[in-house]
Amino acid sequence: MASLPLCRSPSSLLPSWPHRPVSASFHPKSSSSPVAAQVSVQDLPPQDPAPPADSRPNGTGPGSSNTRYLWVNPNSPRAAGVVRARAGSGRRSRLASAAAALGACEPDEAAVAAALEAAFPELPSEQDAVIVLNTAAAARPETAALALRWFLANAGVRRKAILYNVVLKLLRKKRRWSETEALWGEMLREGVQPDNATFSTIISCARACGLPSKAVEWFEKMPEFGCSPDMLTYSAVIDAYGRAGNAEAALRLYDRARAEKWQLDPVICSTVIKIHSTTGNFDGALNVFEEMKAAGVKPNLVVYNTMLDAMGRAMRPWVVKTIHREMVDQQVQPSKATYSCLLHAYTRARYGEDAMAVYRLMKDEAMDIDVVHYNMLLSMCADIGYVDEAEEIFRDMKASMDSRSKPDSWSYSSMVTLYSSTTNVLGAEGILNEMVGAGFKPNIFVLTSLIRCYGKAGRTDDVVRSFGMLEDLGISPDDRFCGCLLSVAGNTPAEELGKVINCIERSNAQLGAVVKLLVDRSASSESFREAASELLSNARGVVKMPYCNCLMDLCVNLNRMEKACALLDAAQQLGIYANIQTRTQTQWSLHLRGLSVGAALTTLHVWMNDLYTALQNGGEGLPPLLGIHTGQGKNTYSDRGLATMFEARLKELDAPFHEAPDKAGWFLTTSVAAKHWLETKKASELVAV
């Protein structure tokens, strides 16, 4: 393509044009000529008289000056482009000035009208209105509606819905819901037909303003105005249905999206995962996560965090670890919410090492950790006996400069519980003193843990003193506290038992009466059974089994086996102990997991009597295999695991049950060995107390 020549020709070459010149600034590419140039498509540049050659600086040619000219043939196609560029530059400048004036004026109808009339002496176009509204109202959204009305009345607008949509988007950006509803009403009064963009904008505005029910309401209006939702609208509405609690509608739309092969996006998938998680359908949440990856949708940070939260709620820490590993592999940068989900998942599942690893990573990155997360960690440490780790966390809390991280009453309660579980009396008392010194009153959880600690240490008088603190503070004993006193009674020597029974009676008169019947040798087993049945029938579901376990511990310790068996029978009648015994053609099993030591021994006593009875009816009645399932790990009612204690007990009885090498927590024997052992023992000797 030929270049445009720089022209310094004398005016005689072409006749002068009578038209007004149109020119624009031009800067030559050559860095050695830093002079301005004028571009003209009409007349030639004016010619100055040529100075003498010796007066020209640096040997420049004739006509050299600080201004250079570029002439363009008006018949060339380039001429139209130059004119358009010149006109476009002027229009942009005019619109920018109009937007600035509109943005600076007060949100008053007269002020807005004056600013726009000064900016547009001629009729503005529809595009002019869109540009000005977008630019000016972004800074001053209060003027948006006023400017809109002026443009609708004074501009050449053919599609009024476009201008309304511009202002609606601006209101959405500023989250002005009341103004959005008002503008919608004005739109309808003016007879303007809303389009898909109108509804999509209003729906997303309602969602951004935290009004999911409003988003659903506008979505359901769309057919009334002849509008069909697009994919973006469906995405917003699925999320809105989920936030509004209408899980069924959200899942119905999601199923439609899958059936019609819509392009899924992370927003839809995150919402559906959250819906499944909220309703407890954790397998459904995992399926959506896998489906979106199979469909080529890359999970973002929100999706990963939603999945981590869902699997934490599902108590599936192994899945949490897998998802987190995938997140790291995909180089998705974790946020504070990510670490919060990980801590929640690992602490709930008592994954101590993983929880502490996340905690130390958060410390290394100087991330804010509030008291809620600290308390989750302390509660976990108290349950699994992480003494050193809990002390480290508690020190960090006290050393923190952030008031949101300082220990609260729950923090002190967890530390007392921790020291109680390890029978560290001095540690528990020290934390209690710190708690009082920090201005917190001991609550019922602290006193319950303290009494348990004193009971395990055999300090009955301190148990009574702590019970007096409960009364002094005006705290009413609850079921958990009464269960703790029962547990302490089960380990209290007979000569001091009356002190604890007195505390039980003052806490719960009905429970105290049952304990007195248990201790009284003259009271019949039947009267004790009836009183215990009435107590358990009226008790809350969560405390029925703990009450039974503790009462049977007390029966065994006081050598009240007949009453223990009566209590076990009453508990089975009430459905408290379900499926303790199972029978198949090949194996009879006794399931003791979750029982206290006394309850387990009582159940074993009854089971051995049943086996003895079956043997008396004929040895063929026994199956080939007999098994006792104690479970493994720490027992709630004992410092040692039930399996460890039971193994020792079976050896004392010379019972032929042996721990199964391939089934942890199981003790097995054959019918032949069991028959030989039962024949050498009388039923009353099977469990010596």
Automatic annotation (TrEMBL):
- Biased composition annotated in UniProt, kind: Low complexity: 1-45
- Tell whether Chaperone is among the UniProt keywords: no
| Major localization class | plastid
The record's listing under Pfam families reads:
PPR, PPR_1, PPR_2, PPR_long
> Mind telling me which Gene3D superfamilies this protein's record contains?
Tetratricopeptide repeat domain
Where are the annotated segments for Disordered? Answer: 1-71
The source organism is Urochloa decumbens
Q: Which keywords belong to this entry?
A: Chloroplast, Plastid, Repeat, Transit peptide, Translation regulation
Where the record annotates domain Smr, the positions are 590-675
Keyword Transit peptide: yes or no? yes
What ranges cover the PPR repeats? 160-194, 195-229, 230-264, 265-299, 300-334, 335-369, 370-400, 408-442, 443-477
Q: Name one GO cellular component term.
A: chloroplast
**Localization, UniProt:** Plastid, Chloroplast
List the PROSITE patterns hit by this protein, alphabetically: PPR, SMR
Q: Which GO terms describe its biological process?
A: regulation of translation
- Name of the protein described by the UniProt record: Smr domain-containing protein
Q: Record's family?
A: Belongs to the PPR family. P subfamily.
